[in-house]
């Protein structure tokens, strides 16, 4: 019975891993959906140099960790789009497994992580009660980013990182949070909770940059990146810059819904 249960868990974990996708001659991307909020974790690696990066670590990512080890990849970076708990809860385990990887996050997000810990003061009593009834969710909501120590790298707008032959450029994109970062790598954009398929991130959470800020941030992405750029968001399915510019009902290239 125990073996059957373990086999079922392995199958479930495998189902959460996407098939490898080659983007260009060098980069491979795979993803895993993690945690009660179904956040995305992305593993990107260069097939030539075997260098790798993770984008957000929402929780346990053993299947992706196994890929890193089996392929002999060198995890150089862990890029954090923003410090909401559902995107960082798995950091301690990754740091323990890959102590040489650089943890990259904006200074604003690291500082605001203290604000995010006060979630019970910011939510409606009914929401707090629902969260309190789920021990896994409570552990995630109470995770203190500062417990990992100071980040090795504070990310600033325009910073560039190299992964194999690809340059990864950081876009500070406030709105969903004050220090949200989107990362452009080759033909990909890792947008965190700023831009989703036909939607955009919330701006009513504690520490958010506000609706006007997220509109500006998204339009900057629209104007800065090629239409064929594939968008890998923090939740949900992939999309692309060109279709979002024209079809996103919340923020298009030329119009935006009222807040």
Q: Which helices and strands appear, and what pairs or packs with what?
A:
Blueprint: H1 2-15, E1 21-23, E2 27-34, E3 39-46, E4 51-55, H2 62-70, E5 74-79, H3 91-97, E6 102-106, H4 107-116, H5 119-122, H6 125-132, H7 135-141, E7 153-155, E8 160-163, E9 166-172, E10 181-185, E11 188-192, E12 195-196, E13 199-200, H8 211-224, E14 230-233, E15 239-240, H9 241-247
Q: What are its keywords?
A:
259 residues, alpha/beta, Metallo-beta-lactamase, Chain A, 7-stranded mixed β-sheet, 9 helices, 31% helix, disordered N terminus
How would you explain this protein's 3D organization?
This protein has a single domain, classed as Ribonuclease Z/Hydroxyacylglutathione hydrolase-like (Metallo-beta-lactamase, Chain A), CATH 3.60.15. It is an alpha/beta fold and 259 residues long. A 7-stranded mixed β-sheet has the order 1-2-3-4-5-6-7. Strands 8-9-10-11-14-15 form a 6-stranded mixed β-sheet. It has helices at residues 2-15, 62-70, 91-97, 107-116, 119-122, 125-132, 135-141, 211-224, 241-247, and strands spanning 21-23, 27-34, 39-46, 51-55, 74-79, 102-106, 153-155, 160-163, 166-172, 181-185, 188-192, 195-196, 199-200, 230-233, 239-240. 31% of the residues lie in helices and 27% in strands. The radius of gyration is 18 Å and the shape is globular.
